[in-house]
Amino acid sequence: MSLGSIFDIAGSGMTAQSLRMNTTASNIANAETVSSSSEETYRARKPVFAAIQQSMMNPEGSSFALGSSEDQAGAGVRVEGIVESQTELQMRYQPGHPAANEEGYVFYPNVNVVEEMADMMSSSRSFQLNVDVMNTAKTMMQRILTLGQQ
Question: Are 143 and 121 contained in the same domain?
Answer without folding.
Answer: yes
